[in-house]
Each structure stands twice: as structure tokens, then as C-alpha cells.
Amino acid sequence: xxxxxxxxVARLRALLGADASGVRQTLVAQSFNSSTSFVAGTVLVxxxxxxxxxxxxxxxxxxxxxxxxxxxxxxxxxxSTTIHAGTFRLSARRDTVLGQNIFASMVLxxxxxxxxxxxxxxxxxxxxxxxxxxxxxxxxxxxxxGVLGSIVVLxxxxxxxxxxxxxGWDLDNVxxxxxxxxxxxxxxxxxxxxxxxxxxxxTPVLNAVLxxxxxxxxxxxxxxxxxxxxxxxxxxxxxxxxxxxxxxGAGLAFERSFNVFExxxxxxxxxxxxxxTGGALGGVLAGRLATKMFLGTSAPDATPDREARRDIWxxxxxxxxxxVFNGVGAQLVAMAFGYDSPGWLDMVAVSLVAGMAGLVxxxxxxxxxTVAAVRTNLDPDNYGIPxxxxxxxxxxxxxxIVTISAFSIR
Length: 410
What we know:
Strand content: under 5%
Distance between the termini: 55 Å
């Protein structure tokens, strides 16, 4: 009897066994990512009145959430690359790699928050959103909310980095999912708290002062004498702005379909987990590819080589249980809080179909963005995560809305 040329089960075992530690780290981080994203979804349901009060604010939400992941996910990837290369040392002095990356992350937070607020307002005006939130009010919410969220995210990212150095974790496997979690959970409450500054007697003065501070901070970072700080700011800011505009497109899609999400709270609970999972999985792939191409174990070719294909298939294998988990988890949260839902089957099907469809596109963006960065001698850690995260926000929003419509959920 002729033996089959290959065994699918054997190949799956080989695929998982080749990087069992990385698989466990990613699954744990992704499970934590999804679970805490349900908290963000619950917060989103609870602030629907605020979103109704300030039309156009929802357009900013995915961009603001994505900004945290883009900045600190890339931060983790840059540090991971130096750890793998053996050049990292755990010191926050201003002239060290870690110290310059810390300063760069805060410069990018303030500067990009200002520019994303302007982009969100421009989208609102261009699409005819009536009575949308005033431009300077939106910049205040974006900057203050961004700084509040980023302070905590920075502290926890440094904690994860210290843990990676001490316990031998691979930051490529855990940084993107955990930073995604922090961005989801902290950004929404931070933006909500920032809205309390609106309507006060000193708000106009505060608006002007914050804009001037943001411009000054960005200029100082752009012209800094510290080479790593200057390089990170100059390389990251353009892609962060482009990524933010794409993510704002996701917010616009949600704003236009707000009625169905407001009707079925379970879908609004699912939305942050859906976007965060795609971004985190894509971030894991981008981080692994960037490190391997930097070390020369994978080639930046037009078609993925064997090493890259292994990472891609592994990503799809990991995604299946995670998207099922998202659908089940969102349904359980909705039942616990009494939100309306289209039902168990629809929730799991929507999560799985929309997630896997979006992931195909995310893999393409992660791979070719990393390849383009390597071929043009740019740091792929500065480009891979933002490109993937912003694209998955937009693609994830569209695939989620299209899938909901395809299942006739109205």
C-alpha cells in the first residue's frame, strides 16, 4: 500500500512543535488580549450617550486606540530586535537606546494625537456629519486622552520589556498582543475623561495652549540631537499619520452603521476584540518577520520563503480558536450585562468569518510592508506594526459590517 506523500496531521504537529514556546506565549497573550478587549467593548456600550452628544468623536476612537498600539507595539519590536542582536541594556538614561525610545514614544503620542484629531475632523466635514464636534475641542480630547492612556501603557510596556530580559520571553510574541490590550482598555476611558474638559470656561484657552505644546514637542523631537530619538520620530510620524487616517476610516464606518451596533450591544462588545485580535496577530507576524529579516534567517523576496510561510500558516492556525473565543466571549458578556444579541450562532459565525477574511488581507500587508522597509533600508519595526494595525482597523471594520449585513442582522 502506497503511503501518502504527506500527512496533514503530521505537518500541523511539526508546525506547532517547531515553535511550541512561541505558540504558547502568543495564545496566552492573545487570550488575555481578547478578554480585556471585552472590557473596552463594555465601556464603548456604556458611553454611547457621549458618542451621540459629540458627533464625529467615534471617528477618532479607532485611530486613538490604534495609535497606542502603533507607537508602543513598534517600541516593543525595536527593543526586541536589539535584544536578539545582543546590543540591548536595561537602562532608561536619556542617551541609551531604551531612554531615547521612551522619549520618542511620548513625542509621537503628543504630535500624532494632534494630527489625528485634525484628520478625524476633516473626515467628519468631508462626509457631511452634521453638528460634529468642534476642531479645537476634538484636539483637546485627543491630546489629553492620548497622554493619559500612554503614561500607563508606557509603564506597563517597560515592565514587559524587563520581564522579557529577565525571563527570556520573546517580545515579538507578546509585545503586540499585550500593547493592543492596554490600548483598547485604557484609551476609551481616557478619551471619555478628557470630554469632561469640554464646555468649561477655560476650555478655549486650554485648547490653544495644548495645540502650541503639541507643536513645540513635535518640533523638539524632530530636531533632537539624540540620533535614535530623531530617527524614530522622523521615520514613525509619517506612517503614524497615514495609519491614523486609515483607522479613522474605520471609525467613520462604525459611525455610519452606529444604529445596528447600538441595537445589539453584543456586537459593540465584539468590535474592539475583533479589531484588536487582527492587529495583534498581524503585529506578531510583522515583528517576527522584521527580526528574521534583520538577522538574515528570512529573505525579503517578492514571495515568502519557507521560513516566512511557516510563520504565516502558524498565524492562521492560531487565529481559528481565537476568533471563536471572541464570538463566545462577546455573547457571554452581553448576557451578563443584559445587552441585546442576534444569538450564539450568529455571534460566533460573524466573528470567525469576518476575522479570517480580514486576516488574509492583514498577512499580505504585514509581509510586503516589512519587505519594502527592509529593501529601502528603513527600520521595519517602525513601519510593520503601524501599517498592519491601521489596515486591520479599516479592513476589520468593513469585514465586520459586511459580514453582519450578509447574515441579515439589522
